């Protein structure tokens, strides 16, 4: 492994999944010029959902953030597939985060921070991004979190 971003990831005790299969009839990413538009990724590992259902009243914020981080790892897998190297990212432009939650739950953005914090840790200022984080009634495969992204390549 010679990619500096993947070495940073490993130093954080994290790794990319070996696969990140699409769940339906769509592309995992689409490149337009220097931008890569990444399809939403749920909190699954190598195609197997890991964290399910809506946020519960006694939820663990740290565990929920790890679910969002898992989404980001799947996004990084697809960035590498699109660009050939995670070091080709010039800027993380935007993240969109979705959290399955009951009406009135207002802490969805704190959960999506799990994805944002990983991109910032890996890319520094280039990882800082515009973001939307919303709560929804349900997500594919009954997942807790889904995150999509737009990144700019060098």
Q: What can you tell me about this protein's structure?
A:
This is RidA family protein. Residues 6-152 form the Endoribonuclease L-PSP/chorismate mutase-like domain. InterPro entries: Endoribo_LPSP/chorism_mut-like, RutC-like_sf. With 154 residues, the protein is α+β, with helices and mostly antiparallel strands. It has one domain (4-153): 60s Ribosomal Protein L30, Chain: A (2-Layer Sandwich). It is 31% helix and 29% strand. The chain is built from three helices and seven strands. The protein has helices at 4-11, 61-83, 108-123, and strands at residues 29-32, 35-42, 44-45, 48-49, 89-100, 130-136, 145-153. The strands form two sheets. Strands 1-2-7-5-6 form a five-stranded mixed beta sheet. Helix 2 packs across helix 3 (108-123). The longest helix is centred in the middle third of the chain and has 23 residues, at 61-83. It is globular, with a radius of gyration of 15 Å. The chain starts with a helix and ends with a strand. The mean pLDDT is 96.
List keywords for this structure.
154 residues, alpha+beta, 60s Ribosomal Protein L30, Chain: A, 5-stranded mixed sheet, 3 helices, 7 strands, 31% helix, globular, RidA family protein
Question: What is shown here, in short?
Answer:
With 154 residues, the protein is α+β, with helices and mostly antiparallel strands.
Question: Layout of helices and strands, plus pairs?
Answer:
Blueprint (H helix, E strand, L loop, with lengths): L3 H8 L17 E4 L2 E8 L1 E2 L2 E2 L11 H23 L5 E12 L7 H16 L6 E7 L8 E9 L1
Parallel strand pairs: 5-6
Antiparallel strand pairs: 1-2, 2-7, 3-4, 5-7
Helix pairs in contact: 2-3
């Amino acid at each position: 492994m010679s990619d500096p971003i993947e070495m940073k990831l490993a130093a954080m005790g994290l790794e990319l999944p070996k696969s990140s299969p699409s769940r339906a009839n769509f592309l995992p990413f689409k490149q337009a010029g220097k931008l890569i538009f990444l399809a939403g990724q749920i909190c699954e590992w190598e195609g197997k959902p890991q964290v399910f259902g809506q946020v519960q009243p006694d939820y663990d914020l740290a565990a929920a953030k790890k679910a969002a981080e898992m989404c980001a790892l799947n996004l990084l897998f697809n960035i590498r597939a699109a660009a050939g190297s995670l070091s080709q990212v010039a800027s993380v432009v935007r993240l969109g985060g979705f959290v399955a939650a009951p009406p009135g739950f207002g802490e969805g953005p704190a959960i999506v921070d799990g994805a944002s914090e990983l991109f910032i840790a890996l890319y520094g200022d280039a990882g800082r991004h515009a973001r939307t984080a919303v709560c929804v009634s349900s997500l594919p495969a009954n997942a807790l979190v889904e995150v999509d992204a737009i990144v700019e390549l060098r």
